[in-house]
Amino acid sequence: LDLSNCSLHTVPPGLAKATTAIVLDLTENPLTALPNGSFLGFVHLQSLAVPLTLECPGGSDAWQDVTVDRSSRLCQGQRNPCNSSVELAWSCPENSVCAPDGPGLVQCLCDNPFHGYKCLREGTFPMLLFGGILGTATVSLSLLLWGTQRRKAKTP
């Protein structure tokens, strides 16, 4: 994806949809900063060129090779922060595993059959029970309101 020399002052919002990009060039743009999370989901990104004034997203530890030339910084070979030997080893809660989510970013995914907050619930989400209770409450409230409010709605 070549976005070089596009007069970008900020990262375009549509860039978030290009998570399958492997090579991205942002050089020759007046970018002042890369907001946190700009590359969320970019797990396939292997080569990123940014203006010299900017650092590689996730820092130099998120990349295997950072090369600087006279006008740009080239970040190559995105590292997996989950199996890194760096002192910032990411820890996920019990019943979950670490998964990369972009340069220097991680997410914790629940192991099967766990789900919910901190992967503490076992089994599948009780969809039938949830839908039944929600449907019953909605129908009951609708009938109650219809019964109490219909006398106020006079027909001409």
Automatic annotation (TrEMBL):
The keyword Hydrolase does not apply. Keywords: Membrane, Transmembrane, Transmembrane helix. The chain crosses the membrane at residues 125-146. One of its GO terms (biological process) is positive regulation of osteoblast differentiation. InterPro entries: ATRAID, EGF, LRR_dom_sf. The keyword Transmembrane helix applies. Residues 108-119 form the EGF-like domain. This is ARAID factor. It comes from Gymnorhina tibicen (Australian magpie).
